Amino acid sequence: MATTFSSTAHYSLLSALKNKNIDLKKDNITLLDMQSPDILAAWNRGDIDGAYVWQPLQTNLIHADGSVLISSKEVAKQGSITGEFGIVHKDFASKYPNVVKGYISILNESVNYYHKNPEKSAELLAKELNLTPKQSLKTMQQLTWLNKSDQQAYFQSNGKLAHVLKDTGDFLEAQKDIPSSPDLKTYQQALLNNFSK
């Protein structure tokens, strides 16, 4: 089985295996670190039996006789959430609060636009990603798009986001991509929830 190590796909794959009580060693599963083009080539040659990947590679594998066993959305419902986050240095945020608020406002506007105009949004994004509008829409529909108000519960000091970041940090530490993962309190204190109101 192949995935890109230290990626969200890798994290979700290991979580999915753990949730199903599948052990790589005991169940004799070899996990290979590969980039998307290499995964597709290995799949087409018959060198791998499975992969955990994102779009549009997923569609390519499905068209080459592949089947989806589980999605990251399903894994997230089981407790292992992945996401994309905007990060700003606290000094920058203190010095330029209007820039940070403006950036958040633009992202929020974009998410709301997508919810109201999914096909048009996919058409616009397709140009940036070099995908067809249909591929772009399929990719976008596999993600959960949270606007500013949807995110509020995550940004509370006892909310989900700090725990998601801690779990991700622990994963990256285990992969030896970072020397150590801070404690939960450090992640909680790093959340700048006053900018998203």
Structure in words:
There is one protein chain. By secondary structure, this protein is mainly α. Helices cover 57% and strands 2% of the residues. It has helices spanning 8-19, 36-45, 57-63, 72-77, 90-95, 97-116, 118-129, 133-141, 148-155, 160-174, 184-190; strands at residues 2-3, 32-33. A two-stranded parallel sheet has the order 1-2. The longest helix has 20 residues, at 97-116.
What features would you highlight for this structure?
single chain; 197 residues; mainly alpha; two-stranded parallel ribbon; 11 helices; globular
List the helices and strands and how they pair.
Blueprint: E1 2-3, H1 8-19, E2 32-33, H2 36-45, H3 57-63, H4 72-77, H5 90-95, H6 97-116, H7 118-129, H8 133-141, H9 148-155, H10 160-174, H11 184-190
Parallel strand pairs: 1-2
In short:
The mean pLDDT is 90. This protein has a two-stranded parallel sheet with strand order 1-2.
Q: In sequence order, what are the helices and strands, one letter per element?
A: EHEHHHHHHHHHH
The shape is: globular
What summary fits the major beta sheet? 2 strands, parallel
pLDDT averaged over residues: 90
Stretches where pLDDT falls below 50 for ≥5 residues?
none
Helix count, DSSP H or I runs of 4 or more residues:
11
Helix content: 55-70%
Radius of gyration: 19 Å
Q: How many distinct beta strands?
A: 2
Strand order, largest beta sheet? 1-2
Structural class by SSE content: mainly alpha
Residue share in β-strands: under 5%
N-to-C span: 43 Å
